[in-house]
Amino acid sequence: MGEIMKVDNTVTVSGLLHHIKSEKKSDKYFLFAIKQETPWSDGTIRKDFLVSRAFITDIQEKVKSLPEGTPLKVSGSLQSSLGSGEIYIYAREVETLQTS
Question: Which of 52, 55, 56, 72 is the most buried (most CB within 10 A)?
Answer without folding.
Answer: 52
